[in-house]
């Protein structure tokens, strides 16, 4: 009650503020005023909610399994704009899947949706805790947290508001967590231990694209790297690019490809490269003919192509790990047989990074010297691809385990 009274009190001030922020105003209006005609009225739906791109990318196997096992449509809601775009690209042609922007936990819009369709299950990917969504949703359907994760950073914050979280957790029918540590933490926060299960990480069930030898050869020619080694820095964050450029300067006969996590950072990276007196090319379209100019660094200003670059890489760095972000997908380069190099900030990929390090199929570095030594090591002693394949095989089927437990609840 207090939560909604506070929201109602703040709404007028929010809209006044947003009048001076056109982009943010658009963001809010797109979520509060949505056309529900893409939904089939009174039809049965499983509602999956994701935060952003990362969650959208890891639910493929889960969505496929839900469609096979349940004769219901799927409503997929996404919080961020980039996540919504990726969801539309992946699922908009599927007649059984409808995609909406998440309505910012507004109780009136949520009621409108729940009254428009019949929701049998709500699936919150990772730890999306929205009070109105959970309180209201529990009156219409069962709610499950899937691929649940409580990071080192979020755990202390959640503990401070456990008095708010615990009543919400009582409305949830099942918690399907990535690891034993995540299970222990969510129980400490108030989840019923009899409803908490370890099902593994859905990331291992992702269907990664495969590329033919011809595709990879064409891409190498396109970026003018038939003979040079290819150093791909994926999902880089602010503060990492300058370190990568310094490392790159020490390498010979190498092309550096920087793929930032957020494209709005491309101008910032361009400035860093210019100040380093290095030549570069900005890539916005893989279909265009490359220029005849030689360049040392390729800055990728395009979404959805990182995996293609990982497939041709000789050296791979995974971003969000040299700065306190917590890391991005270490599995993507591994799928293409490339051993990832990453920094010490691994809270988002904690369990996977531990397994990778224990199996010696990836490397953690703390400084430039360690970075260069690791590159030299990988050149002389590359990791066996069979070892990487065995790692994937031993961790798959998280989606299947999740659905099995869900059916029992």
TrEMBL record:
Keyword Protein biosynthesis carried by entry: no
Keywords: Cell membrane, Lipopolysaccharide biosynthesis, Membrane, Transferase
Residues annotated as domain 3-deoxy-D-manno-octulosonic-acid transferase N-terminal: 37-206
Active site per UniProt: 55
Site (Transition state stabilizer): 126, 203
Reaction(s) catalysed by this chain's protein: lipid IVA (E. coli) + CMP-3-deoxy-beta-D-manno-octulosonate = alpha-Kdo-(2->6)-lipid IVA (E. coli) + CMP + H(+)
Pathway assignment: Bacterial outer membrane biogenesis; LPS core biosynthesis
GO annotation, biological process: lipid A biosynthetic process; lipopolysaccharide core region biosynthetic process
Enzyme Commission no: 2.4.99.12
One of the record's GO cellular component terms: plasma membrane
Record GO terms (molecular function): Kdo transferase activity
SUPFAM superfamilies registered for this protein in UniProt: UDP-Glycosyltransferase/glycogen phosphorylase
Subcellular location: Cell membrane
Chain's role: Involved in lipopolysaccharide (LPS) biosynthesis. Catalyzes the transfer of 3-deoxy-D-manno-octulosonate (Kdo) residue(s) from CMP-Kdo to lipid IV(A), the tetraacyldisaccharide-1,4'-bisphosphate precursor of lipid A.
Family of this protein: Belongs to the glycosyltransferase group 1 family.
Protein name: 3-deoxy-D-manno-octulosonic acid transferase
